[in-house]
Each structure stands twice: as structure tokens, then as C-alpha cells.
Specification:
single chain; four-stranded antiparallel sheet; globular; 196 residues; 0% helix; mainly beta
Length: 196
């Protein structure tokens, strides 16, 4: 039957559970325990042992110094038993940083894969054996770009030679012993569609 798995924020207030994805036998989610702000959490398949991964944005809330600010993890993408995600941090000089991270099912230290303009968004496009393809829509006004990551800094790169993309459609399938990814591209806007 249906039952409560865990009470992240004990009491009457909501834990504001947001983004959620399963990767291997681990469920990753964003939640607020009332002290650390909205951060990345994980639990096992049985629903026991829910735990905060880390308080990424540990800057104290100036209006409520008892708690820390949200890092607001979002865009969760399953990869290699862990998760790729974006989050926001603020340093002591009030500089905001928006980064792409990866963390596995046991570590409490997410790896920074790349820096992005604040409030950019990512969307998973296709998973392959050891990497994922995703689209970044940059908040600085530039158009979307296709990226790939194998969960390492060196392996997190824009997919070339495609360059900036206007996605119309995308699909993937196995080809021989490898994997191929095809997408429709409109470049520049108003030109005929091309298959890549």
C-alpha cells in the first residue's frame, strides 16, 4: 500500500520536494528540511536512509540567519548511477554562481563540470552507455547549444561542429556496434532544415 517513505521536514511545513529522478538503485530529489534550504537529497530503492547530499549553497539567509539559502537543484539527469544537475551558490561577496554538477550515489562532494550564466536551463535529449546528451538554453540571450558529458570535467563539452542549435526534432538509435544521434537543425533561423 501507499505509505510515507520519510519525513524530510518534520512538522506541518512542506519539504517542497521538486526535481526527482532514479539513477541505478538511488532516488535523487530536491527538498528543503527547513534548515539547509532547497538542496539535493538521495535515498535508496527501499526508501530508507534519505539523506542530504550536501548543503551546496551554505550562505546564511540574511533575513533568517538560522537557515541557509537554496541552491535549488534542477535539471536532474541520471548518469552512471549518479546524477547530473544544475545549482546556484552565493559567496560572501554576494556573487551568484550557476554551475553544472555531477555526484554519484555515495559521495557528499559534487564535482563542478562547468560554469553557466545564472538561470540557464538544461534538458536531457538522449542517454548512451557512458554519457548523456543534453541541451543548454543560456539565459544570457544566446540560443541553445548541444552538449555531452561523461561525468568528467574534460568530457563535458559542446557537441561540434553543430554549434548553436534551433531544435526542431531529435532521435537516436543504435547503428552497427556503436550509437548514433541525429537531430534536425535550423541554422540560421529561417533557413531549410538539416539533418545532422
Amino acid at each position: 500500500g501507499t505509505h510515507l517513505v520519510t519525513d524530510i521536514r518534520v512538522g506541518a511545513q512542506s519539504s517542497q520536494i521538486g526535481s526527482m529522478i532514479a539513477s541505478g538503485s538511488t532516488l535523487f530529489l530536491s527538498a528543503d528540511d527547513g534548515m539547509t534550504g532547497k538542496e539535493l537529497w538521495r535515498t535508496n530503492a527501499a526508501g530508507t536512509g534519505a539523506a542530504l547530499v550536501t548543503d551546496l549553497n551554505n550562505r546564511r539567509d540574511p533575513f533568517n540567519p538560522q537557515v541557509t539559502l537554496d541552491s535549488d537543484p534542477s535539471g536532474l539527469i541520471a548518469l552512471g548511477g549518479g546524477v547530473v544537475f544544475t545549482a546556484t551558490t552565493v559567496d560572501q561577496a554576494d556573487n551568484r554562481f550557476f554551475r553544472l554538477y555531477y555526484v554519484d550515489s555515495v559521495s557528499s562532494s559534487p564535482v563542478v563540470l562547468m560554469e553557466m550564466p545564472v538561470a540557464s536551463t538544461i534538458n536531457r535529449i538522449a542517454n548512451f552507455t557512458d554519457r548523456v546528451l543534453f541541451n543548454i538554453r543560456f539565459s544570457d540571450g544566446s540560443i541553445s547549444e548541444l552538449y555531452t558529458t561523461d561525468r568528467t570535467v574534460a568530457g563535458t563539452v559542446p557537441l561540434r561542429p553543430a554549434g548553436p542549435l534551433h531544435f526542431l526534432s531529435s532521435f537516436s538509435f543504435a547503428l552497427g556496434n556503436g550509437e548514433a544521434f541525429f537531430f534536425a537543425r535550423l541554422d540560421p533561423p529561417g533557413s531549410p532544415n538539416n539533418i545532422w
